């Protein structure tokens, strides 16, 4: 689709050429759609079925290894070999740091600020909401995240399907589109919970999200009993689905004992809770900074909506140093599998990599370990380690390039110059990364 700017009405797009006219829309939104279209047209210039050769001086492979002065050969959607002598070169990424596309294990991809600038806008139309979600997907992809796990809204499913069908550019999405909310131990028998899990599974969910405790803004007390959690995680396992549990305080060890796949947040977890997760092989996704800092930075956009109250924001401010301390203790727990997740909501999409910076700078994590947590370990937690998370033959060609070395300067994760997902290039702004076959470069 191409758009025509109306010079008589600055800032407004009035006509589209794709076999149909388009409604008048704000210039910012139309430009976003133009970028979508342009990137897809550019990607289509890649010679179909022919190998793509990427030259790299430095590759961090997602599993803890660094390769130098070699080339990645991509055909169709996959990496077919690593070969220093392959040629001719299609994309020259020498001078940059090449990595697998990042994976964020916890986002809310459809959460956005409405036309009124707030996190809730009851006058927003479905079309506006849909375009905002697509914008979030684009920004996330441009930030170097080629796969995300979105765990909190029915709207995730159609967006996932649009991206999978190639109609909208964005990261690969796994979704738990209808979470199980605990409303207290007396709510929902184990059999009723099993029936709910079956309903969500039948609806096409990729995983089950469980709220086993209150929000941190409400104190974080457990909202499901051990029997309820046991039923939920057991039924999901029977259906071949993973479980991701929002848990604070006692809910952390309860979810671990229930055999759930992954525990989120974990504020107020004890050292014993951390050891228990390590013993059970439970994945742990704590957050150090981005999600709470994003809320604090956008306080006026949230304040007064639901439990976003003055006291709720005070609770979040108090949690920041607690989360940093938890992360330090988690890193010291032998065998604990700490994966990367941001809990990105409105205001944070496209800035997901800030959490990597927070984990290294404030959480004390080794940069290589932080990168692995967002690559091969994250893929393992999704049961997708044979498809994504590493630069290796046979895996999806999800490849990004950073301007800088994140092992010596973790802020390099902000400077994403190149993004390929499944063999398709969506971003290429590196100075020397011009396609040699003469295609269009976004």
How does this model look, in words?
The strands form four sheets. Strands 4, 5, 6, 7, 8, 18, 19 and 20 form an eight-stranded mixed β-sheet that branches. The longest helix is centred in the last third of the chain and has 22 residues, at 310-331. The protein has 13 helices and 20 strands. It folds into three domains: 2-43, no CATH class; 52-101 and 390-428, Roll (Urease, subunit C, domain 1); 102-381, Metal-dependent hydrolases (TIM Barrel). By secondary structure, the chain is α/β, with parallel strands linked by helices.
Précis, in short:
With 442 residues, the protein is an alpha/beta fold.
Task: Estimate nothing, just give the exact number of structural domains.
Answer: 3
The largest sheet, given as strand count, sense and whether it forms a barrel, is:
8 strands, mixed
Instruction: Look at the structure and give the CATH class of the largest domain.
Output: Alpha Beta
Q: What is the averaged pLDDT score?
A: 88
* Multimerization state: single chain
**Rg over C-alpha atoms, rounded to the nearest angstrom:** 22 Å
CATH topology term of the largest domain: TIM Barrel
CATH architectural category of the largest domain: Alpha-Beta Barrel
The coarse silhouette is globular
Number of helices: 13
pLDDT < 50 runs, ≥5 residues = 1-31, 33-45, 433-442
Number of DSSP E strands: 20
The H-level CATH homologous superfamily of the largest domain, spelled out, is Metal-dependent hydrolases
Tell me the β content. 15-25%
